[in-house]
Amino acid sequence: MDIIKYNFDKIQEQAKTDGVKIELLISSSENLSLGYSQKKLEKFESSLTQVAGFRVILGGAQGYSYTENLSPEALLLCYREALENAKTLSSPEKNDHIPLVSPEPVSKSKDSKDKVTFIFSNLLHDENNSIEEKMEVARRLEQDCLDRDARIQSVPYANFSETLSRIRVLNSHGMDQEFSQNYFSGYSYPLAKEGASSKMNGDSFFVRRFKDLDVAAIAKSAVEKTVSLLGAVKLQTGNYAVLIDKDEFRSVIGMFTGYLSAKEVFEEKSLFAGKLGQKIASPLFELIDDPLNTFGASARPFDAEGSPSQKTVVFQDGILKNFFTNSEFAQKMNLPHTAHASRRPASQMDIAPSNLIVGLGSKSSAELLASKQKIVYITHFSGGLHSGFKESTGDFSMPAEGLLYENGKCLGPVDQFVVSGNILELLRDIEALGNEYSKSASSIMCPDVLVSSLSFAGA
Fold it and tell me: Whole-model pTM above 0.90?
């Protein structure tokens, strides 16, 4: 017997009596985390988590509550707490109808829904890899870096993780969707030293299959990124053409994703408000959100409300084509429903992207670096996005490191500089894009991006 469905149905009967609509989101995960330090196993953690969260809709008010206990008594108490929270927030002014998503019938023909089901059924694998094999990966994330270059002094941060996650959404309109996936992730960040210069950088990975792990390639990339920064000199203050590395341009995308939320537009927090259908970026810039791309770390067959996932064009030829919506804000703002509802059992309903993918250009990194007389190749934003970005204006000022090129020739590493600009101006000033993506999976996929000019504060 499906005990979760049985208990939900009983609570649903009570919800009908109370005159409310309900939604239950259940998230569970099993995680194994391994880490070596100084050639010894320093971290061996295994965890199992399970959380259920109710959303109660009373007119135009929403109440939330969550529990880690999925017994019938705990779930009923959780519902009652969410109901009381909704009653507290309810008022005559909040009389808008907040919708619940209804389940869509699954066609028996070979249509897109069948293809989606097939794609996501392949995200759950049982490869039966031994714990010894996984420990060997964790060990090599440190050891391979130490063996690759004598300048590597240590690997302060190295970790291997295996995760199995499950999501289930039920609501009082008959919704009952469930999705499971497993993946392997980790990172290696070595510390290199040469003379008085010491630097740390690294690389990370995310793969669906254990057999796709290439530890040697991860260590090679981590070491190369780190030692390339040794012996850096201060960059002279000025304006430079900039090539932003494909991994680091993810931070740039992260600056403006909030502007794409219809909720942020409605609340007048988005700099993209009023710009739908307008060209606000370079005509070379294209961006889609594709939750069906299983290479992406945020692949999903449905969103947090149970709405079927779909590909959404965000920018095309530099024109803003869509905002992200959930069912509430699609209705409230008369916008297409893009199925971007996002929440965890312990959080409130929000809107968020899945896999953001920037369109490729036609040039290699070498061609882009040779396209300007002088260019700064940013290989690492070192200050963190949130410390250097002002969402209300789009202005950013972030410490970074990189390499200085002149007429296509690398003059060496540069550091101790801060790169500044405005995100809207940066998007308009994109001159070219690289022709390949990073080999490391992420929820944001980008090529190298050439920007005509940014301001640098250095020596």
Answer: yes
